[in-house]
Amino acid sequence: MASLFHLPSSLTFSKICHSAIRASHSHSRVSVKNENPLPKLSKFSSKTLNFLLSGSLALALSLTGVGIAEGLVGVNKPELLPKEFTSVIDVAGFLSDGQEKRLAQEITDIEKDTGFKLRVLAQNYPDTPGLAIKDFWQVDDRTIVFVADPTFGNILNFNVGATVDLDIPRSFWSRLAGTYGNMFYWKEKGEDASIEAAVMAISSCLREPVGPNNCSEVK
Predict the structure, then answer these.
(1) Helices 191-206, 97-114: inter-axial angle, 10-degree rounding
(2) Distance separating alpha carbons of residues 77 and 126, to the nearest angstrom
(3) Can you tell me whether residue 33 is helix, strand or coil?
(4) Is 10 a domain residue?
(5) Nearest to residue 90, comparing CAs of 162, 7, 195, 172?
(6) Is 136 part of a structural domain of the chain?
(7) Is residue 4 a part of any domain in this protein?
(8) What is the rounded average pLDDT for all residues in the chain?
């Protein structure tokens, strides 16, 4: 099984699987923090996203429903990183230059308005920068790493920092993956449409006032 690069302890908490758990309609910050996900399902889902990231990030929140064979070995290709910093890395070529620029601007606005850092990596496994994205993006507890990879069916996968987890209900990520990440959606509308829709939904969610019903809808 691919090895894991362990982030600081503040970033390591339980994993959940969107395909096997029906998200509740409302979560408070306290109830989310005390949630006890199903251990077998979390183990199953964590393997997939860890694999997508080349086994390089210990994931805080894994939202994908397909397991992988333990014998598969992750990859790490820092040469796939761009020479200059960008919040959107499209290794797979899903996005046009214009789409990348619009998403990067939206992400800049999100960080300015909310303090949260959204980072997007579009890839087709095994072509992925892997471990290198952690240092390239300075991933911390206010970072959302969004990996768009259709390899295992659902294209939307998320790594959520501890501070983000306090403010955003975990059910939001599972509903987001179910809405815009399912195979029927991205095969009909395109991978780029799934990525753009997910970024805008995250932007809308992060701008909502924190409360028991925030992010109750995927917009």
Answers:
(1) 10
(2) 9
(3) helix
(4) no
(5) 195
(6) yes
(7) no
(8) 76
What confidence score (pLDDT) does residue 183 get? 96
pLDDT tier for residue 148 given thresholds of 50, 70 and 90: very high
Is the distance from CB of 51 to CB of 74 less than 8 angstroms?
A: yes
Hey, which bits of 23-142 come out as E strands? 88-90, 117-122
Number of domains comprising the chain: 1
Structural domain of residue 116, as residue ranges?
Answer: 35-206
Task: Look up residue 131 and give its two tokens.
Answer: 């471990």
194, part of any domain: yes
Find residue 117's DSSP bridge partners: 143
Q: How many CA atoms lie within 13 A of 102 on its CB side?
A: 12
Kindly list the strands in the beta sheet with 117-122, ordered across the sheet, starting from the edge strand earlier in the chain.
88-90, 117-122, 143-148, 156-160
Residue 47 neighbours by CB distance under 10 Å: 22
Q: What radius of gyration, in Å, describes the C-alpha atoms of the chain?
A: 16
Q: How far apart are CA 73 and CA 153, in angstroms?
A: 19
| Unique residue bearing structure tokens 């797979």 | 92
Three-class DSSP category at 32: helix
- Helix (H) or strand (E) run with residue 45 in it: helix 39-52
Residue 39's contacts (CB-CB under 8 Å, 6 or more residues apart) are none
Query: What CATH number did the domain enclosing 192 receive?
Result: 3.10.310.50
Torsion of CA 187, 189, 192, 197, to 10 degrees: -120
pLDDT for the residue 131: 80
Contact 88, 104 (CB under 8 A): yes
